[in-house]
Amino acid sequence: GAVVSQHPSWVICKSGTSVKIECRSLDFQATTMFWYRQFPKQSLMLMATSNEGSKATYEQGVEKDKFLINHASLTLSTLTVTSAHPEDSSFYICSASPGLAGPRDTQYFGPGTRLTVL
Amino acid sequence: AQKVTQAQTEISVVEKEDVTLDCVYETRDTTYYLFWYKQPPSGELVFLIRRNSFDEQNEISGRYSWNFQKSTSSFNFTITASQVVDSAVYFCAFKADRGSTLGRLYFGRGTQLTVWP
């Protein structure tokens, strides 16, 4: 149980295009989802926290107009990188928490999406 | 503020050696959780252990063992008889259980472990 999927697993796009990444909790309802980015040989950096049905909370320094997050249902959150540029190339990882329905201290991670912007 | 320090950036060992990965954390919270995750080259984070602040018992799971010492704010991870498949980046993480930081994980920088045959 507690499986989180991400789609796509990798994507290559041209500079200026927008890319949408999906994060799904497959066998539980995720009241909270988190989005991270990770540069090579670095740690995970939290970008934003999203709760179902409400606006995402972005970390300081993360442009909310560039990284659009939608958490429209209890099993799906999306991250859209708008007008992507080469510096947005990174490994994006989502995690999901079942909230009060499960161990509140548990986050389950997706397999990540590798974005390359040419 | 919460902070997790993994002072070892890279560790190399030869197969069958024991290796300990260090993790030190800083917090003013009394209730919190500590985690270890493994990130193999594929990139997916693999959950290894969760420990809450009230439980200082050491834990052993096969070749893995964890030493939680509240007095030194450390949560170290030991792999016994290491294997090549243990090669990965290991992250230590902290989560408070109150207030505005509820749910947020704070990660250390990670330790790259390479096990040579």
What does this protein look like?
- The complex is a heterodimer of chains A (118) and B (117).
- With 118 residues, chain A is mostly beta strands.
- The model of chain A has no long low-confidence stretch (mean pLDDT 90).
- The termini of chain A are far apart.
- Chain A contains no helices and 11 strands.
- By secondary structure, chain B is an all-beta fold.
- Helices cover 0% and strands 53% of the residues of chain B.
- Chain B contains no helices and 12 strands.
- Chain B has strands at residues 3-5, 10-14, 19-21, 24-26, 32-39, 46-52, 59-61, 64-69, 74-79, 88-96, 105-107, 111-116.
- In chain B, strands 2, 5, 6, 10, 11 and 12 form a 6-stranded mixed beta sheet that branches. Chain B has a 4-stranded antiparallel beta sheet with strand order 3-9-8-7, with no helix packed on it. Chain B has a two-stranded antiparallel ribbon with strand order 1-4.
- In chain B, strand 8 and strand 9 (74-79) form a beta hairpin.
- Chain B starts with a strand and ends with a strand.
- The mean pLDDT of chain B is 91.
- At the A-B interface, strand 5, strand 9 and strand 10 of A face strand 6 of B.
